[in-house]
Specification:
seven-stranded mixed β-sheet; disordered N terminus; binds adenosine-5'-triphosphate; elongated; 13 helices; binds magnesium ion; Rossmann fold; Ribosomal Protein L25, Chain P; about 575 residues; alpha/beta; single chain
Length: about 575
């Protein structure tokens, strides 16, 4: 962790400290990160990963990566591979401890038999709809199933036949026999198994009955010897059931602890909805740089350090809230400011001809690579008679307060010379296509020996030496802070930002960025942080803008870490 990272303790750490003190788990700490392989990981998962792996590491324990693959129809191997890559990239150290809930199907089945034998579970012939109807409400108790009191023999026989594939999907379930009048709806004889004749990405057609999440999760934790099973708040009401199963089975009992989910403004985190964005081509795949996925953020140029720093600033609590996206961007900037090398690039080029500069002369100007780190040294940038500057840095008819280049005005070219605009060339439409200037040879490096000042410094590239590049600029994917805020009859996709991506194909970059490996990150001076995209080739450079140089953060600086009450 970086020294600027505020390390505040939180209630989960305090629970672990207490458990270590009382020797509750024999001094062990073992956590797990349990994604369902039904999509790619998103920034919310980064928070869970940071906690699960971070706490294990802090206390000298281990964190397992476990795929919660109990739902055969939605899971895919592509997601498994993507998740492994993303967890590693974030720094999660699971060694060779990659597990799958599906590896435990055999054990879970034996435990179902054990519960039936103990009179704690039964086969129920009600349909899913009937089970739901008879479940009762928060104020009314549920009704007991007519199949609740089947004999152990009949239950075992039916379970065996369910497993053998004798019954169609949905015909029967296995239910835990707990309490149809419980205040907690999760304890009203919850379903443990359902029939599903579906192929599983790992077990193939070996099974046609699949365990429900609640029946699989705690037991999987128990099998792996997990001590602290950290999950999000929506599982709080499931904890009594988690406890019930491991207690009835008399097996190792991990402690489930719930924390608040990460929600971010302008960001959608439901995997189902992210999948829709991908499938219906609102975005270009899971790693589209506008996606809140780890793979999208990696492609956009975010660093694992920035994401980890963001996660440690979030804190951990028992109430859900919304975090400002600008806090995440602040963390990305803070990290890139420290390590990205500075270069010059022009996104919207305007030709500048320096009339009194010798034809064919090229001077190498020394430019500092990173003012934050003198160890990064300096490089040479070629200067010549024809340059490009940013269209925005010139106004023929400047408004008040515009101090950049305009007719008669002198400005500094960064690491170059002072230049003064003398005239412009226009196209038939009357647009300025070329700016003519003179330079002062005495101002090499950017200072006048007579001490005269200029009011602005602009960036440039030499036209003959510039590399052409495609540069992709991004805005938030949604126009609303809460993308789910829609009126009747509308969908979250109606809140997509039509201007979320802008592709500039005519950018000009200084030659030093040639041959930058995939993922290299730069600060383009005055424009933001950019990284080499995976579609970039030596002949067709492609850069993504990771983040602008500054923005709305100033607005929230005075608030405590970017979280708003819901
Ligand atoms: P979704 O409902 O979008 O499918 P999920 O919670 O079901 O998401 P899982 O793959 O089951 O996704 O999540 C794996 C782990 O990551 C779980 O422990 C879950 O609690 C945690 N997690 C998921 N989303 C968030 C989030 N937004 N903030 C913090 N932790 C999260
Ligand atoms: Mg889930």
């Amino acid at each position: 962790m970086t020294p600027t990272t505020p390390v505040a303790s939180h209630f989960i750490r305090d629970i672990i400290l207490e458990d270590l003190k009382t020797n509750k788990f024999g001094g062990r700490v073992c956590t797990r990160f349990p994604p369902e392989p039904n999509g790619y990981l998103h920034v919310g998962h980064a928070k869970a990963i940071h906690l699960d792996f971070g706490l294990a590491k802090e206390f000298g324990g281990q964190c397992n990566l476990r795929f919660d693959d109990t739902n055969p129809s939605k899971e895919e191997t592509e997601y498994v591979e993507g998740i492994i890559e993303d967890v590693k990239w974030l720094g999660g150290d699971f060694g060779d401890r990659i597990f799958y809930a599906s590896e435990y199907f055999g054990q879970l089945y034996e435990w179902a038999v054990q519960l039936i034998r103990a009179g704690k579970a039964y086969v129920c012939d009600l349909t899913a709809d009937q089970v739901r109807e008879q479940r009762g409400t928060l104020t009314e108790p549920g009704q007991e199933s007519p199949y609740r009191n089947r004999s152990v023999e009949e239950n075992l026989n039916l379970l065996e036949r369910m497993r053998a594939g004798e019954f169609p999907d949905g015909a029967r379930t296995v239910r835990a026999k707990i309490d149809m009048a419980s205040k907690n709806l999760n304890l009203r004889d919850p379903v443990m198994y359902r029939i599903l004749h579906a192929e599983h990405h790992r077990t193939g057609t070996q099974w046609c009955i699949y365990p429900m999440y609640d029946y699989a999760h705690g037991q999987s934790d128990s099998i792996e010897g997990i001590t602290h099973s950290i999950c999000t708040l929506e599982f709080e009401d499931h904890r009594p059931l988690y406890d019930w199963f491991v207690e009835q089975l008399g097996i190792h009992h991990p402690q489930q602890i719930e924390f608040d989910r990460l929600n971010l403004t302008y960001t959608m985190m439901s995997k189902r909805k992210l999948l829709k964005l991908v499938q219906e081509k609102y975005v270009n795949g899971w790693d589209d740089p506008r996606m809140p996925t780890i793979s999208g953020m990696r492609r956009r140029g975010y660093t694992p350090e920035a994401l980890r720093n963001f996660c440690s600033r979030l804190g951990v609590s028992k109430t859900n809230g919304i975090t400002e996206l600008s806090l995440l961007e602040y963390c990305v900037r803070e990290d890139l400011n420290r390590r990205a090398l500075r270069v010059m690039g022009v996104l919207h080029p305007l030709r500048v001809v320096i009339d009194n500069y010798s034809d064919g002369l090229v001077e190498e100007m020394e430019a500092i690579n990173n003012p934050e780190d003198p160890g990064d040294g300096a490089r040479n940038v070629p200067f010549s008679k024809v340059l490009y500057i940013e269209q925005d840095d010139f106004r023929e008819d400047p408004p008040k307060q515009f101090y950049r280049l305009s007719p008669g005005r002198e400005v500094r070219l960064r690491y170059g010379y002072f230049i003064t605009c003398t005239s412009v060339t226009k196209n038939p439409k009357g647009e300025v296509v070329e700016v003519h200037c003179t330079y002062d040879p005495e101002t090499r490096g950017g200072n006048a020996p007579d001490g005269r000042k200029v009011k602005s410094t602009i960036h440039w590239v030499s036209a003959d030496h510039a590399l052409n590049a495609e540069v992709r600029l991004y805005e938030t994917l949604f126009t609303k802070e809460d993308p789910d805020d829609v009126e009747e009859g509308h969908e979250f996709t109606d809140n997509l930002n039509p201007r979320s991506a802008e592709i500039l194909t005519g950018a000009k970059l200084e030659p030093s960025v040639a041959n930058s490996p995939l993922g290299t990150r730069y600060q383009f001076e005055r424009l933001g942080y950019f990284c080499v995209d995976r579609e970039s080739t030596p002949l067709n450079l492609v850069f993504n803008r990771t983040v602008t140089l500054k923005d709305a953060w100033a607005k929230i600086e005075n608030k405590t870490p970017g979280k708003k009450p819901k």
